[in-house]
Amino acid sequence: MNTASLKSFATSARTALIREVSARMTAVLAQGSPERVEQPRVVAELEGAISASGGNEKGKEHVADRVAYTWFNRIIALRFMDANGYTGVGIVSPAADQVGQPEVLAAAKRGHVDGDVVKGANAATVAGLLNGTRQPRSGVDAQAEAYSLLLSAYCRYWNRAMPFMFERKEDFTELLIPANILAEDSVLSRAVTVLTEEVCQDVEVIGWLYQFYISERKDEVFAGFKKNKRAGADEIPAATQLFTPHWIVKYLVENSVGRLWMLNHPESRLVDQMDYYIAPAGEESNFLKITKPEELTVIDPACGSGHMLTYAFDLLYAIYEEEGYTPSQIPGLILTNNLYGTEIDPRAGALAAFALTMRAGAKRKLFLRNPVEPSICVLEPISFSADELSHLVHEDGDLRAEEAFWNQFAEADTVGALIQPDPNLTDRLAHHLATLGDEGDILRADALGLAQQVLRQAEILLPGYSVVIANPPIPRYEEDVLWPV
Length: 485
Known about the structure:
- This protein is mostly helical.
- Among the domains are: 3-201, no CATH class; 386-418 and 421-460, no CATH class.
- It has 21 helices and 4 strands.
- It has helices spanning 3-29, 34-38, 40-52, 56-83, 103-109, 120-131, 142-159, 172-175, 187-194, 204-213, 215-226, 236-240, 246-264, 307-322, 330-337, 346-363, 386-392, 399-406, 412-415, 423-433, 442-460, and strands at residues 298-300, 339-343, 375-378, 467-468.
- Strands 3-2-1-4 form a 4-stranded parallel sheet, sandwiched between helices.
- Helix 4 packs parallel to helix 9 (187-194) and helix 13 runs parallel beside helix 14 (307-322).
- The longest helix is centred in the first third of the chain and has 28 residues, at 56-83.
- The two termini are 43 Å apart.
- Keywords: Methyltransferase, Transferase.
- GO terms for molecular function: site-specific DNA-methyltransferase (adenine-specific) activity.
């Protein structure tokens, strides 16, 4: 894969999107803006996010960076889906063998809008903008505003199948779509040019784009190291997200996942498709016994954008197929039974889940109609106050051990999968949590929800997988850069 054009596109896209999102933010936050009049709740949500991110210019920069990445993520995901025929209509791409505007906008100009996707008032607004009966916002082209509504509607539609990629956490994201999104040199237009159908045949492209998108941020972080700045939770992803070359991925997966299957099934023809597999020199007897494909569980505890897991998916598919499973069932079986990943970077975690979903969709075109969500867990920092802990612990239990259990993920966004939950305590507290109620207390209900998340994170980190495979993120830090010992 020629990555030079991908790098040029991703790095320039980040700069452009941050600039354009910031410009939209300034317009939205202006006194008397149409958005303040028509969508005061959403504008208040935006102001709250800015305040929570440090306020003033620092907060605005942080939110602009986050929203810019969200739209980059969505645009490249939708382009990949368009190119592979998953969307039905080109959401960011022109119709097949054509150039110009996205197919969905061209169809809307002819009066064709999918009512299952674009609902009620939005459909009427799109029609009004395109037929001239409704005026666009000041300084915004009518077609660009109509397309922004269409794009947002399709993101909400795909949220049902892929909530990890098309999240609905912040409605103000839709207010900040770049005003020039339909321009000839826009990020959307360049995405269609760079991400050709040939390039989009391999979901590996998504991982490369992410590495290149954050490359400037990585340079900033490493420049900070030279000034003796320590790496915190915000810096670690940029410093450690490196896309593992495909030959290394194949070598590692074939000599772990493939090797374990071959040891248990020496007659398997899986060996024929493993270019980097090294057969054992002699007879081995001390290995985990695997009788059927569902038993071969694999975790990548630092999964990044999912490169290891997507190739493991390919090998597992071949294993299931060789064992006589129905092809239409195999993708769901793999995602349900075999593959797991943890990650501290929410962006990378979303890409890993997307990559696995696209792998499944490539094997079964109807998969996205009833998808199985990949088991990718982004490890979130969670801690509890003394009052919250008093409700979570057993009255007659080991108070210190239980409090430590509930707070073990307090620095999860820094230490990630290095956390080692106690299996017995995890099981016991899971049963205990099931007996607790919120008693009508909103704060207690919130604490119980966080406790459930702690259990989910603890359970995925418990030992017991057939294969653990990873290219661990080990940057060249000086001693004591992360935290004092």
